[in-house]
Specification:
327 residues, Single alpha-helices involved in coiled-coils or other helix-helix interfaces, Rossmann fold, seven-stranded parallel β-sheet, 12% strand, binds guanosine-5'-diphosphate
Protein backbone atom coordinates (compact mmCIF):
# COMPACT_ATOMS: atom_id res chain seq x y z
CA UNK A 1 0.00 0.00 0.00
CA UNK A 2 1.14 3.48 -0.81
CA UNK A 3 2.31 5.73 1.97
CA UNK A 4 -0.42 8.10 3.12
CA UNK A 5 -0.25 11.45 4.84
CA UNK A 6 -2.54 12.45 7.68
CA UNK A 7 -5.72 14.35 6.84
CA UNK A 8 -4.19 17.53 8.29
CA UNK A 9 -1.06 17.14 6.18
CA UNK A 10 -3.13 16.84 3.00
CA UNK A 11 -5.19 19.86 3.99
CA UNK A 12 -2.20 22.05 4.91
CA UNK A 13 -0.28 21.06 1.79
CA UNK A 14 -3.20 21.80 -0.50
CA UNK A 15 -4.03 25.11 1.14
CA UNK A 16 -0.41 26.17 0.78
CA UNK A 17 -0.70 25.32 -2.95
CA UNK A 18 1.76 22.45 -2.81
CA UNK A 19 1.40 20.48 -6.03
CA UNK A 20 2.92 17.29 -4.80
CA UNK A 21 0.42 17.12 -1.96
CA UNK A 22 -2.37 17.94 -4.40
CA UNK A 23 -1.34 15.07 -6.66
CA UNK A 24 -1.18 12.70 -3.70
CA UNK A 25 -4.61 13.83 -2.51
CA UNK A 26 -6.03 13.18 -5.98
CA UNK A 27 -4.53 9.70 -5.88
CA UNK A 28 -6.22 9.24 -2.52
CA UNK A 29 -9.58 10.35 -3.91
CA UNK A 30 -9.17 7.94 -6.82
CA UNK A 31 -8.38 4.99 -4.56
CA UNK A 32 -10.94 2.26 -3.91
CA UNK A 33 -9.55 1.15 -0.59
CA UNK A 34 -12.13 1.57 2.16
CA UNK A 35 -9.57 3.22 4.48
CA UNK A 36 -8.60 5.67 1.71
CA UNK A 37 -12.23 6.57 1.13
CA UNK A 38 -12.64 7.50 4.79
CA UNK A 39 -9.45 9.57 4.77
CA UNK A 40 -10.41 11.27 1.49
CA UNK A 41 -13.77 12.31 2.92
CA UNK A 42 -12.07 13.80 5.99
CA UNK A 43 -9.75 15.81 3.76
CA UNK A 44 -12.58 17.02 1.51
CA UNK A 45 -14.73 17.96 4.46
CA UNK A 46 -12.01 20.22 5.83
CA UNK A 47 -11.36 21.73 2.42
CA UNK A 48 -15.00 22.40 1.60
CA UNK A 49 -14.95 26.05 2.78
CA UNK A 50 -12.09 26.71 0.35
CA UNK A 51 -13.86 25.31 -2.71
CA UNK A 52 -16.31 26.69 -5.24
CA UNK A 53 -14.41 29.84 -6.19
CA UNK A 54 -13.18 28.79 -9.62
CA UNK A 55 -14.69 29.18 -13.06
CA UNK A 56 -15.55 25.65 -14.14
CA UNK A 57 -15.42 25.13 -17.87
CA UNK A 58 -16.22 21.93 -19.79
CA UNK A 59 -14.71 21.40 -23.24
CA UNK A 60 -15.76 18.73 -25.68
CA UNK A 61 -15.35 17.83 -29.34
CA UNK A 62 -14.62 14.81 -31.48
CA UNK A 63 -11.05 13.45 -31.62
CA UNK A 64 -9.02 15.58 -34.01
CA UNK A 65 -11.16 18.71 -33.61
CA UNK A 66 -8.16 20.30 -31.90
CA UNK A 67 -8.95 20.08 -28.19
CA UNK A 68 -5.42 19.75 -26.88
CA UNK A 69 -4.07 22.46 -29.17
CA UNK A 70 -6.95 24.71 -28.14
CA UNK A 71 -6.44 24.06 -24.42
CA UNK A 72 -2.74 24.69 -24.83
CA UNK A 73 -3.36 28.09 -26.48
CA UNK A 74 -6.19 29.08 -24.13
CA UNK A 75 -4.15 27.86 -21.17
CA UNK A 76 -1.13 29.94 -22.14
CA UNK A 77 -3.36 32.97 -22.58
CA UNK A 78 -4.80 32.48 -19.10
CA UNK A 79 -1.50 31.84 -17.35
CA UNK A 80 0.01 34.87 -19.13
CA UNK A 81 -2.68 36.86 -17.35
CA UNK A 82 -1.56 35.33 -14.07
CA UNK A 83 -4.47 32.90 -13.78
CA UNK A 84 -3.88 29.50 -12.21
CA UNK A 85 -5.37 26.79 -14.36
CA UNK A 86 -6.10 23.09 -13.78
CA UNK A 87 -6.95 20.79 -16.67
CA UNK A 88 -8.80 17.58 -15.86
CA UNK A 89 -10.03 14.96 -18.30
CA UNK A 90 -12.79 12.40 -18.55
CA UNK A 91 -11.90 9.85 -21.17
CA UNK A 92 -14.62 7.23 -21.69
CA UNK A 93 -12.34 5.12 -23.88
CA UNK A 94 -9.78 4.62 -21.15
CA UNK A 95 -12.47 2.97 -19.03
CA UNK A 96 -13.02 0.15 -21.47
CA UNK A 97 -9.71 -0.34 -23.18
CA UNK A 98 -6.11 0.34 -22.41
CA UNK A 99 -5.97 2.90 -25.17
CA UNK A 100 -6.94 6.43 -24.37
CA UNK A 101 -8.02 9.22 -26.66
CA UNK A 102 -7.14 11.93 -24.18
CA UNK A 103 -4.63 10.79 -21.65
CA UNK A 104 -1.31 10.50 -23.43
CA UNK A 105 1.55 12.45 -22.01
CA UNK A 106 2.79 14.18 -25.12
CA UNK A 107 -0.29 16.41 -25.24
CA UNK A 108 -0.11 20.03 -24.13
CA UNK A 109 3.66 20.07 -23.94
CA UNK A 110 4.10 23.75 -23.16
CA UNK A 111 1.23 23.95 -20.73
CA UNK A 112 2.39 20.87 -18.83
CA UNK A 113 5.60 22.67 -17.81
CA UNK A 114 3.90 25.99 -17.05
CA UNK A 115 4.18 26.65 -13.30
CA UNK A 116 0.67 28.14 -13.21
CA UNK A 117 -0.92 25.14 -14.92
CA UNK A 118 -1.71 21.71 -13.55
CA UNK A 119 -2.73 18.86 -15.85
CA UNK A 120 -4.24 15.65 -14.54
CA UNK A 121 -5.29 12.84 -16.91
CA UNK A 122 -8.53 10.90 -16.65
CA UNK A 123 -8.68 8.53 -13.68
CA UNK A 124 -8.84 4.86 -14.60
CA UNK A 125 -12.01 3.33 -13.29
CA UNK A 126 -14.83 0.95 -13.89
CA UNK A 127 -17.88 2.97 -14.76
CA UNK A 128 -18.14 6.42 -16.27
CA UNK A 129 -20.29 7.36 -13.27
CA UNK A 130 -17.49 6.42 -10.88
CA UNK A 131 -15.01 8.41 -12.92
CA UNK A 132 -17.31 11.44 -12.89
CA UNK A 133 -17.59 11.20 -9.11
CA UNK A 134 -13.81 11.15 -8.72
CA UNK A 135 -13.37 14.01 -11.17
CA UNK A 136 -15.80 16.14 -9.15
CA UNK A 137 -13.80 15.51 -5.99
CA UNK A 138 -10.58 16.27 -7.85
CA UNK A 139 -12.10 19.56 -8.98
CA UNK A 140 -12.78 20.49 -5.34
CA UNK A 141 -9.20 19.63 -4.39
CA UNK A 142 -7.89 21.82 -7.23
CA UNK A 143 -10.07 24.72 -6.13
CA UNK A 144 -8.80 24.43 -2.57
CA UNK A 145 -5.27 24.41 -4.01
CA UNK A 146 -5.94 27.85 -5.49
CA UNK A 147 -6.73 27.08 -9.11
CA UNK A 148 -8.98 29.81 -10.47
CA UNK A 149 -9.99 28.14 -13.70
CA UNK A 150 -10.78 24.44 -14.02
CA UNK A 151 -11.07 22.99 -17.51
CA UNK A 152 -12.69 19.58 -17.77
CA UNK A 153 -12.04 18.03 -21.13
CA UNK A 154 -13.82 15.12 -22.76
CA UNK A 155 -14.28 13.54 -26.18
CA UNK A 156 -17.46 13.53 -28.16
CA UNK A 157 -18.32 9.89 -27.64
CA UNK A 158 -20.77 8.15 -25.37
CA UNK A 159 -22.30 9.98 -22.46
CA UNK A 160 -19.19 11.71 -21.23
CA UNK A 161 -20.34 15.15 -22.46
CA UNK A 162 -23.50 14.99 -20.40
CA UNK A 163 -21.42 14.05 -17.39
CA UNK A 164 -19.01 16.90 -17.90
CA UNK A 165 -21.91 19.27 -18.49
CA UNK A 166 -23.29 18.21 -15.10
CA UNK A 167 -20.19 19.43 -13.26
CA UNK A 168 -19.30 22.75 -14.91
CA UNK A 169 -20.64 26.31 -15.12
CA UNK A 170 -19.87 26.79 -18.78
CA UNK A 171 -19.91 24.25 -21.57
CA UNK A 172 -17.83 24.77 -24.70
CA UNK A 173 -18.35 22.69 -27.81
CA UNK A 174 -15.56 22.63 -30.39
CA UNK A 175 -16.65 21.79 -33.92
CA UNK A 176 -15.02 21.39 -37.31
CA UNK A 177 -16.31 23.15 -40.39
CA UNK A 178 -17.60 20.83 -43.08
CA UNK A 179 -18.23 17.81 -40.89
CA UNK A 180 -20.87 15.53 -42.40
CA UNK A 181 -24.59 15.89 -41.83
CA UNK A 182 -24.90 12.70 -39.89
CA UNK A 183 -22.29 14.01 -37.48
CA UNK A 184 -24.22 17.21 -36.99
CA UNK A 185 -27.38 15.15 -36.38
CA UNK A 186 -25.62 12.96 -33.87
CA UNK A 187 -24.40 16.03 -32.07
CA UNK A 188 -27.74 17.71 -31.78
CA UNK A 189 -28.25 16.80 -28.15
CA UNK A 190 -24.82 18.16 -27.34
CA UNK A 191 -25.29 21.32 -29.36
CA UNK A 192 -28.22 22.08 -27.08
CA UNK A 193 -25.95 21.89 -24.05
CA UNK A 194 -23.37 24.33 -25.40
CA UNK A 195 -22.97 27.86 -24.02
CA UNK A 196 -20.54 28.61 -26.82
CA UNK A 197 -19.81 26.68 -29.99
CA UNK A 198 -16.37 27.39 -31.40
CA UNK A 199 -15.57 26.38 -34.97
CA UNK A 200 -11.91 25.36 -34.79
CA UNK A 201 -9.03 25.61 -37.28
CA UNK A 202 -10.41 28.80 -38.83
CA UNK A 203 -7.14 29.53 -40.61
CA UNK A 204 -5.59 29.21 -44.07
CA UNK A 205 -7.82 27.55 -46.65
CA UNK A 206 -10.26 26.60 -43.93
CA UNK A 207 -11.24 30.14 -42.98
CA UNK A 208 -14.17 30.66 -45.32
CA UNK A 209 -15.65 27.28 -44.54
CA UNK A 210 -15.35 28.06 -40.84
CA UNK A 211 -17.19 31.37 -41.30
CA UNK A 212 -19.98 29.60 -43.16
CA UNK A 213 -20.24 26.98 -40.46
CA UNK A 214 -20.41 29.73 -37.87
CA UNK A 215 -23.35 31.36 -39.65
CA UNK A 216 -25.10 28.01 -40.08
CA UNK A 217 -24.83 27.17 -36.41
CA UNK A 218 -25.87 30.62 -35.34
CA UNK A 219 -29.03 30.18 -37.42
CA UNK A 220 -29.64 26.70 -36.13
CA UNK A 221 -29.35 27.89 -32.53
CA UNK A 222 -32.15 30.39 -33.09
CA UNK A 223 -34.48 27.44 -33.50
CA UNK A 224 -33.73 26.13 -30.03
CA UNK A 225 -35.86 27.21 -27.11
CA UNK A 226 -34.27 29.87 -24.90
CA UNK A 227 -32.20 28.51 -22.02
CA UNK A 228 -33.60 28.76 -18.47
CA UNK A 229 -30.62 30.89 -17.40
CA UNK A 230 -31.33 33.63 -19.95
CA UNK A 231 -28.00 33.01 -21.63
CA UNK A 232 -27.95 33.22 -25.42
CA UNK A 233 -25.48 30.65 -26.79
CA UNK A 234 -22.81 32.13 -29.03
CA UNK A 235 -21.04 30.74 -32.07
CA UNK A 236 -17.57 31.88 -32.98
CA UNK A 237 -14.56 30.81 -34.98
CA UNK A 238 -11.04 30.37 -33.68
CA UNK A 239 -7.61 29.18 -34.63
CA UNK A 240 -5.53 27.72 -31.86
CA UNK A 241 -2.45 27.42 -34.03
CA UNK A 242 -2.62 31.09 -35.07
CA UNK A 243 -3.91 32.19 -31.67
CA UNK A 244 -7.03 33.84 -33.10
CA UNK A 245 -10.41 34.07 -31.43
CA UNK A 246 -9.10 32.81 -28.10
CA UNK A 247 -9.39 36.18 -26.33
CA UNK A 248 -12.94 36.57 -27.67
CA UNK A 249 -13.84 33.14 -26.44
CA UNK A 250 -12.58 33.91 -22.96
CA UNK A 251 -14.47 37.16 -23.01
CA UNK A 252 -17.69 35.15 -23.51
CA UNK A 253 -16.81 32.84 -20.64
CA UNK A 254 -16.40 35.86 -18.36
CA UNK A 255 -19.59 37.45 -19.67
CA UNK A 256 -21.44 34.24 -18.98
CA UNK A 257 -19.99 34.05 -15.48
CA UNK A 258 -20.97 37.64 -14.70
CA UNK A 259 -24.45 37.29 -16.11
CA UNK A 260 -25.21 34.06 -14.24
CA UNK A 261 -23.76 35.35 -11.01
CA UNK A 262 -25.84 38.46 -11.37
CA UNK A 263 -29.15 36.68 -11.98
CA UNK A 264 -28.49 33.99 -9.38
CA UNK A 265 -28.39 31.12 -11.84
CA UNK A 266 -24.80 30.18 -11.10
CA UNK A 267 -25.74 29.19 -7.57
CA UNK A 268 -28.89 27.45 -8.74
CA UNK A 269 -26.90 25.46 -11.28
CA UNK A 270 -24.32 24.42 -8.71
CA UNK A 271 -27.00 23.49 -6.18
CA UNK A 272 -28.74 21.36 -8.76
CA UNK A 273 -25.47 19.72 -9.70
CA UNK A 274 -24.70 18.92 -6.08
CA UNK A 275 -28.11 17.36 -5.55
CA UNK A 276 -27.74 15.29 -8.70
CA UNK A 277 -24.28 14.23 -7.51
CA UNK A 278 -25.71 13.08 -4.18
CA UNK A 279 -28.41 11.00 -5.84
CA UNK A 280 -26.13 9.51 -8.43
CA UNK A 281 -23.73 8.50 -5.65
CA UNK A 282 -26.58 6.78 -3.81
CA UNK A 283 -27.52 4.85 -6.94
CA UNK A 284 -23.90 3.85 -7.52
CA UNK A 285 -23.43 2.69 -3.94
CA UNK A 286 -26.66 0.69 -3.89
CA UNK A 287 -25.70 -1.02 -7.11
CA UNK A 288 -22.22 -1.75 -5.85
CA UNK A 289 -23.48 -3.11 -2.54
CA UNK A 290 -26.00 -5.26 -4.32
CA UNK A 291 -23.59 -6.81 -6.81
CA UNK A 292 -20.81 -7.23 -4.27
CA UNK A 293 -22.84 -9.54 -2.05
CA UNK A 294 -21.11 -12.84 -1.41
CA UNK A 295 -22.59 -15.77 -3.34
CA UNK A 296 -24.71 -13.49 -5.50
CA UNK A 297 -22.63 -14.09 -8.61
CA UNK A 298 -23.72 -17.70 -8.97
CA UNK A 299 -27.35 -16.77 -8.48
CA UNK A 300 -27.03 -14.03 -11.12
CA UNK A 301 -25.51 -16.47 -13.59
CA UNK A 302 -28.36 -18.89 -12.93
CA UNK A 303 -31.02 -16.21 -13.48
CA UNK A 304 -29.25 -14.98 -16.61
CA UNK A 305 -29.43 -18.50 -18.01
CA UNK A 306 -33.13 -18.77 -17.28
CA UNK A 307 -33.80 -15.38 -18.87
CA UNK A 308 -31.82 -16.41 -21.94
CA UNK A 309 -33.84 -19.59 -22.27
CA UNK A 310 -37.05 -17.69 -21.83
CA UNK A 311 -38.11 -19.82 -18.86
CA UNK A 312 -38.52 -16.80 -16.62
CA UNK A 313 -39.50 -13.19 -17.25
CA UNK A 314 -36.70 -10.66 -16.79
CA UNK A 315 -38.60 -8.81 -14.09
CA UNK A 316 -39.33 -11.97 -12.16
CA UNK A 317 -35.67 -12.89 -12.30
CA UNK A 318 -34.77 -9.42 -11.08
CA UNK A 319 -37.25 -9.67 -8.20
CA UNK A 320 -35.78 -13.02 -7.16
CA UNK A 321 -32.30 -11.55 -7.16
CA UNK A 322 -33.41 -8.54 -5.17
CA UNK A 323 -35.02 -10.82 -2.60
CA UNK A 324 -31.85 -12.89 -2.45
CA UNK A 325 -30.35 -9.75 -1.00
CA UNK A 326 -32.84 -9.86 1.86
CA UNK A 327 -32.19 -13.48 2.85
P1 LIG B 1 -7.75 16.62 -30.27
O1 LIG B 1 -7.71 15.19 -30.70
O2 LIG B 1 -9.14 17.15 -30.31
O3 LIG B 1 -7.07 16.88 -28.96
O4 LIG B 1 -6.96 17.46 -31.41
P2 LIG B 1 -5.46 17.98 -31.46
O5 LIG B 1 -5.30 19.21 -30.67
O6 LIG B 1 -4.53 16.85 -31.19
O7 LIG B 1 -5.36 18.42 -33.00
C1 LIG B 1 -5.60 17.53 -34.07
C2 LIG B 1 -4.87 18.01 -35.29
O8 LIG B 1 -5.37 19.28 -35.70
C3 LIG B 1 -3.36 18.23 -35.06
O9 LIG B 1 -2.67 17.80 -36.20
C4 LIG B 1 -3.24 19.72 -34.89
O10 LIG B 1 -1.99 20.21 -35.29
C5 LIG B 1 -4.35 20.25 -35.78
N1 LIG B 1 -4.85 21.55 -35.27
C6 LIG B 1 -5.24 21.82 -34.01
N2 LIG B 1 -5.64 23.10 -33.89
C7 LIG B 1 -5.48 23.66 -35.12
C8 LIG B 1 -5.73 24.99 -35.65
O11 LIG B 1 -6.14 25.92 -34.95
N3 LIG B 1 -5.47 25.16 -36.98
C9 LIG B 1 -5.01 24.16 -37.76
N4 LIG B 1 -4.80 24.44 -39.05
N5 LIG B 1 -4.76 22.93 -37.30
C10 LIG B 1 -4.98 22.66 -36.00
Amino acid sequence: MMHRLTADQYVEGILSHDRLTLSRAITLVESRLASDKVLAQRVLEQLLPHTGQSIRVGITGVPGVGKSTFIETLGKYLTSRGKRLAVLAIDPTSQRTRGSILGDKTRMETLSVDPLAYIRPSPAGDSLGGVAHRTRETMLLCEAAGFEVILVETVGVGQSETLVHSMVDFFLLLMLAGAGDELQGMKRGIVELADVIAITKADGANRTAAEHARADYQNALHLFPPTPTGWIPQVLTCSASENKGITDLWHWVEQHQHSLQHNGHRNLIRQGQNLAWMHSYIRQQLEEQFYNQPDLEEKVADMENQVRQGSILPIQAAEKLLKFKAT
